[in-house]
Amino acid sequence: MTQTFRKLFAYIFLACSPAIAQEVILSIDFESVTPGPGALSDLSPSFTTFLTGDTIASGVDPATDPQQGVLATSLLGTGPAGYVGGPNTNVQFNAGLGSFFLLTFPGSPSDTAVYLKGSAQSQRVISIDFAIERSTNTQGYAFHLFDAQGEATPQFQYHSYIYILSNNAIYYQDNLSEAFTDSGLSITPNTPYRLTYYVDYDCAKWTAYLTNLNDDSLIPIVSDRELDYNAFTLSGWTTAQSLDIRTYTQNFDLTQPGVFGDRMVFDNYVAAIQAKDSVEITAFNYDSSNGTVTLSWDSETGATYSIRYTEDLTENFDGNLVCAINSGGTTTTYGPIASPIPNATKLFFQVGKD
Predict the structure, then answer these.
(1) Which residues contact 152 (CB under 8 A, 6 or more apart)?
(2) Could you report the per-residue pLDDT of 103-126, keeping only the tens digit for each?
(3) H helix intervals, 81-130
(4) Which of 122, 113, 150 is closest to 316 using CA atoms?
(5) What is the mean pLDDT of the segment spanning 261-275?
């Protein structure tokens, strides 16, 4: 449906094209990898692994020590799986700092970037299966996403942080440098879970939940938490394959060295981008007295919607007018809407299901 008004400015309402299906950018299941210590580096695209801390205790070569690799079988029961830490891991750090980390993630800052905000595929979906085996109860495990800060020479910034402490409690952090929040939840050791992330780049919000793979029960962690536009460039370039898997040694007795005694196994890593379901605008009302418009569209009970706009159909709908509009039932009406661009001669609107 297209309609033009010529008063203070002209509006054109666009009935959206069909939704674009989810596009998987990266999928890793370790089936093609020969199990063994250090085998994560055999993956293509490879996992990048860093071992960071103060001074590594003498007598250990981190290049050959099995602090990470691939197991032939694991608690996940899906064949080969990646791991960090655990039995036969001899890497230790000198006493004094109390917290050190090993991190590994697929992709790198040199990977091909994808422009998500305002695009046809503005949502990112990432999932990974994991289980934590406790031995020394000294390690915390973390997952978080990273995005580019700036387009010319991007620097990467972390957000959407899920942190599982050594006592198995789950904490989260929305944006870098903010305080961690206790979710009130915890995981059970030796239990397989799937962690799923949804990040909406138009609305700058993220959602994460666990699925217990033994009984398929869902465990919501966060829902529609706000991301900070100023912390990193959501409107800039962002990689689609950017889940950082990180483990910390939590040495509370600073007279003892840090050691990676616990182990996390992980498998079935999937990174995808997807479109919001497009919605046809079914009715509109233009108020010529103040130049505002009210939109209506068919909707689903319990769903939320977003309205975006553009001045030129040759470009993306990168103008974010409003997010998270609650459904009104079978029909949703929103307005009055003032022009987001004063003195615009025409505007195209798009309604999408979040």
Answers:
(1) none
(2) 677 765 566 666 676 666 778 889
(3) none
(4) 122
(5) 85
